[in-house]
Design a protein that fits this description.
By secondary structure, this protein is of the alpha+beta class. The chain is built from 24 helices and 17 strands. It starts with 10 loop residues before the first helix and ends with a helix. The chain binds adenosine-5'-diphosphate (ADP) and magnesium ion.
């Protein structure tokens, strides 16, 4: 689809060429990254030695030299002020799943009634927002309300332009005052990147391919799906306004506007929005390209080029914010919810993931010579082992109230974690398992016993859109991630579990190789480790249709877990195995993971209860009154018809049916109000009650309301319909 598959290099360098190409197509070349304090700007503005030291930290993960901070801060401030900034903010990602910022001005008074601008190293390096207003899942009780933000120099600072204000944004990690407990999404992501880098390098050393490599980076490219609707409708729907999804709404007649959306041209207003979003994102250095061919009416997609996972995760947050902000300017609302419209395709975020060395080698690229290919199979098998062993954890990493409506539904990947490999790789894995590799499929020659491995074609050509975790040429694509979620957390989990498998493989290899590092020994040691892994974990490989019911039966037979909803998925976070893996790789402590579980459960409860309350409120104050008005009209019509001495039997029948429906609806509202009031004290019990009682009661009132919508006169119905909302013009 894009030239990026041809670029297998380290993302930063790989990104440059296609971005230039993209930008040459539009007159915005000089605008690219204009609002980012890039390496080039740093080089121009920082003393040579300071620049060099900072780059060493950014690129090679060396510890940050605090003496640099004042110099860097001052250069940043000058650059920001020259670009019109008046304020700076530490920009961080608390566990609300959103971003947070607190602005401070650069301005300080001088001695003589004037003002100077100032930005010190300590203000750059450390901030102190009030942590008590962010979720800490019990950490607060233990560690006080205080939290610090700490500059993450590996993600570039940028200017935020909003409402005429220009603010210097400093990406930061957010930790408790001891500095030890992560209160955000970035800190564990950075830790997991260290962990996977360390283990990957260990493996490269075994293969002797570590020359010049100082880091291995997890790379990430996250495709964002979203809906656009006219803002007028958005404000007319309390459910969209408070929950970002419709709680009521009868499905439009089958496929009608679905087709004219899919084949129709993009409305000019949407085009203008896309163009402006792209430009804003380019200024922020986010390498996006836009696609607009999503299946559902009103649904669109934006895909960026991949970058190192930490920067990609930051950029992804900027993508979501930018889409929302720009849409509003065009009189539209950008809806990021996973399932805003029942019965219509949901939205996901496909997280493309790989590992690349800082010398430019994509470790999941199946091509190249013997060593690289052998290495590829090791990395491939490491991922297979990880996804099978930690399937539940991976599932839990994408669990949310919103994603529940999508995962397992017809058009989304099932909640069962499985890997799509494609025919060619599956064949090779099977060959490997039997231990007697012969030459295989036309595009590659397999000769594991000897010195050469097959030159694998980089594109197998086959695609499987139903798999939650698919190998797509030279990377994996994790498709179960929700459209409104931060990619940081699932990526953290992926990095951590792959670090675990690499650690396992390295330990085995180091043990069996000892000091004897001949090529032949290496080949046979690797083969034997991989064979064991394949035997044990191949059950997770599935190339068929993930939407098929038969797969559920088959998966159960294979013993693959199927955690259907958030309430069953979240508790696995604190399973011993998962606590252990986080702890072993220093990604999260036991306390941190427990607090996260707590926060996620609490968030689930809050979200569904807000929905339930919104639903009862809309039902009582909007839908029921409309239904009664309609009832009155019908009753008046019956009376008038009978008074005119005309047979009104049919009309009376309609009235009676309507009254019956209205009564059922009223009862359903009462039922929902009742179950919402029940309030088990323990948050986990509460979550269970919400799943088992609140959600079904919500489904019941929705079903009746949607039936009413199909009966009540349109001029009385108080809410914009799906048809209106989904045909964006
Ligand atoms: P499609 O999935 O439609 O074929 P692409 O293959 O072009 O689309 O890429 C989808 C996403 O995968 C893009 O964001 C792209 O940058 C990303 N991607 C490509 N290579 C890698 C990689 N090595 N690591 C992480 N993401 C990657
Ligand atoms: Mg894709």
């Amino acid at each position: 689809m894009t030239p990026r598959h041809e670029e297998n290099g380290y993302p930063r360098t790989a990104v440059v060429a296609p971005i230039d190409r993209l930008l040459h197509a539009r007159p915005v070349h000089d605008q690219f990254a204009a609002d980012v304090f890039t390496e080039r700007v740093m080089q121009q503005r920082l003393p040579k030695d300071v620049f060099k030291k900072l780059i060493r930290t950014i690129k090679h993960g060396d510890r940050l030299d605090h003496d640099l901070a004042d110099v860097v801060a001052s250069a940043m401030k000058d650059w920001a002020v020259e670009n019109g900034a008046t304020h700076y903010t530490h920009w961080f990602q608390p566990l609300t799943g959103l971003t947070a910022e607190k602005h401070d001005a650069f301005i300080v008074p001088d001695e003589s009634g004037g003002a100077l601008s100032e930005f010190t190293g300590s203000a750059l390096v450390r901030g102190e927002p009030d942590a008590s207003s962010f979720p800490s899942g019990g950490l607060r009780a233990t560690f006080e309300a205080r939290g610090y933000t700490a500059w993450d120099c590996t993600s570039p600072v940028f200017l935020n332009r909003s409402g005429g204000a220009i603010t210097l944004c400093i990406p930061t990690a957010f930790v408790s005052w001891t500095g030890a407990e992560a209160l955000d999404n970035k800190t564990p992501l950075l830790r997991s990147m260290e962990a996977v880098s360390e283990q990957a390098i260990r493996l490269l050393k075994i293969f002797g391919t570590h020359e010049g490599v100082s880091r291995v980076m997890a790379t990430c490219g996250a495709e964002q799906e979203y809906f656009l609707i006219d803002r007028k409708y958005y404000f007319e729907r309390p459910d969209l306004l408070t929950c970002d999804r419709t709680l009521f709404g009868a499905k439009p007649p089958k496929h009608q506007q679905l087709e004219d959306h899919y084949f129709g041209s993009i409305p000019a207003r949407v085009m203008a929005f896309m163009n402006e979003s792209e430009r804003e994102l380019y200024r922020l250095g986010v390498p996006v390209k836009t696609r607009h061919n999503e299946v559902a009416p009103g649904q669109f997609e934006l895909a960026p080029m991949f970058e190192t996972a930490n920067i990609a995760a930051d950029h992804q947050m900027l993508v979501m914010e930018t889409l929302k902000r720009v849409a509003a300017r065009h009189g539209m609302e950008c809806i990021l919810h996973e399932k805003p419209f029942a019965g219509i395709n949901g939205s996901g975020k496909h997280v493309n993931w790989s590992l690349a060395t800082d010398t430019g080698v994509n470790l999941l690229d199946p091509r190249d010579d013997t060593h690289t290919n052998m290495q590829f199979l090791v990395f491939l098998c490491a991922v297979i082992r990880s996804v099978d062993m930690y399937a539940e954890l991976l599932r839990a990493s994408v669990a949310s109230a919103a994603n529940d409506h999508r995962l397992g539904a017809n058009e989304a990947p099932p909640a069962i974690m499985s890997i799509f490999l494609g025919d060619m790789l599956t064949d090779i894995i099977e060959q490997l398992e039997s231990g007697t590799p012969k030459r295989t499929m036309k595009s590659g020659q397999l000769d594991l016993g000897a010195r050469t491995l097959p030159h694998l074609p980089r594109h197998t050509g086959d695609r499987n859109r139903t798999s939650p975790f698919a190998f797509t040429g030279n990377k994996f694509e994790f498709r179960a991630v929700g459209s409104s979620a931060s990619v940081a957390w699932p990526t953290t989990v992926l990095n951590t579990i792959v670090a675990d498998s690499l650690d396992f493989i390295c330990s085995q290899l180091e043990k069996s190789l000892g000091k004897d590092h001949t090529e032949a020994r290496l080949q046979s040691a690797v083969r034997s480790v991989l064979q064991k892994i394949i035997k044990q974990h191949k059950r997770v490989i599935f190339n068929g249709d993930g939407y098929d019911k038969a797969w559920h039966t088959e998966a159960a037979k294979r013993g693959l877990p199927n955690l259907r909803d958030t309430v069953s998925a979240l508790p696995v976070l604190t399973a011993k195995k998962n606590i252990d893996v986080f702890r072993r790789f220093k990604v999260l402590s036991k306390l941190e993971i427990e607090s996260r579980e707590h926060i996620y459960v609490e968030k689930f409860n809050k979200q569904v209860l807000i929905e339930a309350e919104t639903a009862t409120n809309m039902a009582r104050t909007q839908i029921l009154p409309a239904a009664i008005r309609h009832q009155t009209e019908l009753a008046e019509a019956v009376a008038a018809t009978e008074a005119a001495d005309v047979d009104a039997a049919d009309l009376r029948g309609e009235l009676e049916a309507h009254v019956e429906l209205v009564n059922k609806f009223r009862a359903a509202i009462e039922k929902l109000e009742g179950v919402v009031k029940a309030h088990p004290a323990d948050i986990f019990d509460h979550a269970g009650q919400i799943r088992d009682e609140v959600r079904p009661a919500m489904a019941d009132i929705r079903e009746l309301a949607d039936e009413l919508e199909n009966r009540v006169a349109e001029d009385i119905w108080p809410l914009p319909s799906y048809r209106e909302m989904l045909s964006i013009r």
